[in-house]
Amino acid sequence: MIGAPAPTSDIRFYSRLTFAASLFIATVLTTLALADSASDSQSSASAVSWAPGYFIPNDVELSRRFANSECAIEEALFRDSADGRLDDFTQFQAAIVAGGESDLEELKRYESAFAKLVQKFRSERQNTNATPELVRAAFEFMHKNVFYGGYRIEASDPRTVLSTGKFNCVSAVTLFDCMLDSLGVPASPLRMPSHAMSRAYLSDEIIDVETTCPKWFELRNDPEKRAEIAAKASGTTGASVEKDAKPVTTVQLVAMIYYNRGVDYLAAKEFAQAAKANAKALRLDSTNDLARGNFLATVNNWSIQLADELRFEEAAAALKCGLKFAPAYKPYSQNFVHVYRCWAERCRNEGRADEAVRLLRDALQTMPNQPQLEAFLRDVAQ
After folding, report:
1. CA-to-CA distance for 295 and 275, rounded, in angstroms?
2. Euclidean distance between CA atoms 97 and 88, whole angstroms
3. What is the dihedral sign for C-alpha 168, 169, 171, 172?
């Protein structure tokens, strides 16, 4: 008998955009041992079913279809950002929605709370002209009054920051930029490998800010220490603001919030939510290669879980559609062979050899001339 190849999890690093953090997403499995599973029959009931209609070959259109929202506020955000800009939504509103808020009254409550913070800052400052001193004062105010709970890798949701004071680089940049915008200081996010920073634009000076470092402005005269902090925050050896930090749009920053949510869902093996979150990130920012990579890993690892649960038909459908979306992605083709091999072997062991032959022929329609499938088909057909 020809041995079934082991399933292939995606074992690349897909990093959360946070301070000094990377998360090993894929579950490393050496075998599924599906034929020896304790379950006697393929499960027909599931909390999440795989729908092949989720996938079409064009990735931009895919993200639009897969990322469609049942939340009216969120769908309005996607429509507003379709041109790469926010016109109807403020940056603050968009970030709160991206964090998961679907209730309009709750959105208004968070807006009111942030407006009070802005007013508090203004009341403490006699001069709110756009100067380096104002940027520093706003930064220190945020760390004292908003970012008081300390850094947490999972704290991408701005609502978490406002409720607990816990933050990561994406949520800190988001809220700091919102504060600067409220004060009339133009700002934009900076994207680095696995990290985000903020850039403030004054009339005669540009100020880059590491929002996760409370003492950033105290180190103004120590560029080497600042460079060290920025490199550590990016999680990449040799990274620097000058070389690696790229300005991105507000919409792209909002996409980072969705991407980070996808990382959390994928780590928790909540594959349906992970796929949606990464697809939404791609809908907002089709250039986000990290979101695309995690989307691929999600579908791959989802298929492994479905097969592990003996839900072979759904696993095969996921992989078929994945192959249409990314035919060069090797884990899809490797797991496709594995799933059909185990599915057909189970049928044969249960006395359904004809069905096993039909399944293998169907698989060869998708992957013609695949030697392992052809060899097993000959074995089963004897």
Report:
1. 6
2. 13
3. positive
